[in-house]
């Protein structure tokens, strides 16, 4: 049911961001009086448009972004000369060509800053616990946290030597590091202690699971239709007070006791779990038979998380946007670094299916989530294009810098070889990301 809105949201988001990206190249090229042959909304066959001076402004068939064709830049130049000779005279100076190449990703970085600030101006709803001090309230039985020796009441202060002050920082540091041994600095009864914690990969995104849990009350906010909880009569607003006779207050206590109750189900088969809930002035007993999904037994409900709305003034929104974008750049660097070290997971990268799903969810959630997501994607688009991979802006910038160092333009043949290598590398990356995109999101 959500597929049409996901596709529409994907088309809108990508078109918006890529048109701004190409608009950056276009504006700077025009400023330096470089000939611009084409400015296209969309790719593929030209549908309609108009020509003014040397530029063909067009709308093309495939509505995913667009492109600008500047004479003297990019792979197009290799298409017009059979390349064994020196490159033809290029318009402008190398500095001007560098500025044109930088302009696309540069616009995306500025756009990320402005969109994120706009989201903070409109107001972002976030889970309240994420900004709280990371004091452990519940440790899952048998979890990596329990194996590491972390106990309820411990306050987490550092992870891998990095100071963490909120649950959000803890979740980022551990979630991005499945299978990686992390040195976790805690304070227990006033005394510092360092323990080794190795998160386990969980979910289809290989998110690092630790079993460390904050305080979230066991109040039902959402019941998944046709799951055991719904079939047993669980309703939104119910407060779960016990599981198999064990009193609970927090959501993660419910998860722990259900997991403990289901520990023998693989061998003996699923059996009813007694859950006592309060509903208004009533106390109701439900018998729920969990269903197994993957490695976990589920009853199908989500807890009610206390949320806060971060709505800031103009100056504070710009400051928050700067901090958020810097944080995301660091997180991106961590992900890329772990991939190069072989400790990361390709499942944590998102392809078109994930982006469509996230865009659709953000669009259905409201203006602020959609604007925030567009800010995140704009930042990633800008950073991606700055990578020194031939065919991307960063690759062309790198080649231009090498030419500047050599004080000559490379032959078209050399550029062709670089572009072919870059193209093969990008195809390999795209196929890999798309493969994981499909297996994460498509059920065969």
Write a concise synopsis of the structure shown.
The protein is of the alpha+beta class and 444 residues long.
Mean pLDDT: 86
- Binned, the helix content reads 40-55%
Largest sheet: number of strands, sense, barrel closure: 4 strands, antiparallel
* Tertiary shape: elongated
| Spatial order of strands in the largest sheet | 6-5-7-8
Which regions contain 5 or more consecutive residues with pLDDT less than 50? 76-86
Please work out how many helical segments DSSP would assign: 13
DSSP strand content: 15-25%
Report on the architecture of this protein:
By secondary structure, this protein is of the alpha+beta class. It has 13 helices and 20 strands. Helix 10 (352-365) runs antiparallel to helix 11. The two termini are 18 Å apart.
Structural topology:
Elements: H1 3-31, E1 36-52, E2 55-70, H2 76-79, H3 94-122, E3 124-127, E4 138-139, H4 144-148, E5 155-159, E6 162-163, H5 167-175, E7 182-188, E8 191-197, E9 200-202, E10 207-209, E11 212-213, E12 220-223, H6 228-232, E13 239-243, E14 246-247, H7 251-261, H8 265-268, E15 273-279, E16 282-288, E17 291-293, E18 296-298, E19 301-303, E20 307-310, H9 314-341, H10 352-365, H11 367-385, H12 393-406, H13 412-441
Antiparallel strand pairs: 1-2, 3-20, 4-11, 5-6, 5-7, 7-8, 9-10, 12-19, 13-14, 13-15, 15-16, 17-18
Helix pairs in contact: 1-3, 1-10, 1-11, 3-9, 3-11, 3-12, 9-11, 10-11
């Amino acid at each position: 049911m959500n597929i049409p809105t996901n596709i529409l949201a994907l088309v809108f988001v990508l078109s918006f961001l890529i048109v701004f990206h190409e608009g950056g190249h276009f504006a700077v090229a025009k400023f330096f009086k470089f000939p611009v042959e084409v400015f296209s909304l969309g790719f593929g066959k030209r549908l309609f448009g108009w020509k003014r001076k040397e530029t063909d402004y067009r709308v093309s068939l495939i509505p995913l972004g667009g492109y600008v064709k500047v004479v003297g830049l990019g792979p197009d130049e290799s298409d017009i000369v059979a390349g064994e000779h020196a490159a033809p005279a290029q318009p402008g100076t190398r500095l001007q060509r560098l500025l044109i190449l930088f302009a696309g990703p540069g616009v995306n970085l500025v756009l990320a800053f402005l969109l994120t600030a706009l989201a903070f101006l409109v107001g972002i709803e976030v889970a309240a616990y994420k900004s709280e001090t990371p004091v452990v309230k519940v440790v899952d039985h048998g979890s990596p946290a329990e194996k590491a020796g972390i106990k309820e009441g411990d306050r987490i202060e550092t992870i891998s030597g990095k100071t963490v002050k909120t649950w959000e920082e803890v979740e980022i540091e551990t979630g991005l590091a499945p299978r990686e041994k992390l040195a976790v600095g805690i304070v227990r009864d006033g005394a510092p202690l360092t323990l080794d914690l190795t998160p386990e990969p969980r979910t289809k995104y290989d998110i690092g699971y630790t079993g460390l849990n904050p305080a979230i009350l066991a109040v039902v906010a959402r019941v998944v239709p046709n799951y055991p909880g719904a079939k047993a009569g669980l309703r939104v607003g119910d407060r779960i007070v016990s599981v198999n006779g064990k009193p609970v207050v927090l959501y993660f206590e419910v998860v722990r006791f259900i997991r403990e109750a289901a520990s023998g189900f693989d061998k003996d088969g699923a059996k009813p779990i007694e859950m006592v809930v309060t509903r208004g002035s009533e106390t109701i007993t439900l018998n729920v038979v969990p269903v197994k999904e993957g490695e976990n037994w589920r009853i199908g409900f989500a807890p009610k998380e206390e949320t806060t709305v971060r709505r800031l003034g103009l100056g504070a929104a710009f400051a928050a946007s700067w901090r958020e974008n810097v944080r995301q750049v660091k997180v991106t660097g961590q992900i890329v670094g772990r991939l190069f070290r072989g400790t990361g997971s390709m499942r944590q990268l998102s392809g078109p299916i994930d982006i469509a799903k996230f865009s659709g969810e953000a669009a259905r959630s409201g203006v602020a989530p959609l604007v925030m997501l567009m800010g995140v994607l704009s930042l990633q688009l800008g950073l991606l294009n700055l990578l020194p991979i031939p065919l991307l802006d960063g690759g062309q910038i790198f080649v231009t810098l090498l030419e500047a160092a050599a004080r000559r333009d490379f032959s078209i043949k050399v550029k062709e070889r670089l572009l072919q290598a870059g193209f093969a590398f990008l195809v390999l990356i795209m196929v890999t990301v798309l493969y994981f995109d499909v297996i994460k999101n498509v059920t065969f």
